[in-house]
Amino acid sequence: QKEVEQNSGPLSVPEGAIASLNCTYSDRVSQSFFWYRQYSGKSPELIMSIYSNGDKEDGRFTAQLNKASQYVSLLIRDSQPSDSATYLCASSQGGSEKLVFGKGTKLTVNP
Amino acid sequence: GAVVSQHPSRVICKSGTSVKIECRSLDFQATTMFWYRQFPKQSLMLMATSNEGSKATYEQGVEKDKFLINHASLTLSTLTVTSAHPEDSSFYICSARDPQGALYEQYFGPGTRLTVT
User: Fold this and answer.
1) pLDDT in tens, A30-57
2) In angstroms, rounded to a whole number, what is the distance separating the alpha carbons of residues B32 and B45?
3) Please, what is the average pLDDT of chain B?
């Protein structure tokens, strides 16, 4: 069973700080990785995808991928209260179109 | 782009009845759609993968005769929960892949909250 592991949190940071979310995956064949944000009672929203080792930046968000360590992270700079949500990490499942999701990390940004 | 809609957003039905949920890709043609279920405070559970013009592929433990999936066109997939029971109450979410988009990216619909009384 291919797995994606996340710290369930909750992770609490003050407004303006950097929030760091981490994820590990077990399937060495996985090539594609995603971060989704899910507000309470809503469906997930894609915020970042990353396919190559290294960093990928999009506004306040930076995704980091290390395939050797099977590790993906998401950094949120200048965290805002509106960033408070559950963040889901997902990886493609060995060449199939299916995604494997972690259980999510709940982030709270305190004003 | 990559907008996915779902209808209805919320439905309450009596035990033993059937409920149909529609998932539409609004601005792209989705050859593949996915159906997920999410219970409170739990992560997404993939139920099935739906390919246009062919039978859906169900995940292990998901009853295909209970959760009927039809993907009749490149923009519409439906999930019918047959003979619903209270334990089927959940948040059902579809997603779709845009074949012209980035590899394996899935875009989610807003979800359907089903309550079976």
Assistant:
1) 889 999 999 999 999 999 999 999 999 9
2) 17
3) 93
Cα angle vertex A54, ends A48, A55, to 5°? 45
Phi-psi region of B47 (alpha: psi -120 to 50; beta: other; left: phi over 0): alpha
Question: What is the rounded distance in angstroms from the CA atom of residue B111 to the CA atom of residue B91?
Answer: 6
Q: Which residues of chain A neighbour B91 with C-beta distances below 8 Å? A: 43
Stretch A100-108: mean pLDDT:
94
Which pairing describes strands A61-66 and A11-14: parallel, antiparallel, or unpaired? unpaired
How many of the other CB atoms lie within 10 Å of CB of B78?
A: 19
C-beta atoms of B43 and A103 within 8 A: yes
Question: Cis link prior to B8 (omega < 30° from 0)?
Answer: yes
- DSSP secondary structure code for residue B104 in this structure: T
From CA B72, how far away is CA A49, in angstroms rounded? Answer: 29
Say if residues A53 and A65 touch (Cβ distance below 8 Å).
yes
Tell me how close the Cα of A51 comes to any Cα of chain B, in angstroms: 9
Q: In the prediction, which pLDDT does A96 show?
A: 78
Chain B residues in contact with A32 (beta carbon < 8 A):
103-105
Peptide bond between residue A10 and the one before it cis (omega within 30 degrees of 0): yes
Q: Average pLDDT, whole number, for chain A? A: 93
**In this structure, are residues A65 and A57 in contact, taking their beta carbons and an 8 Å threshold?**
no
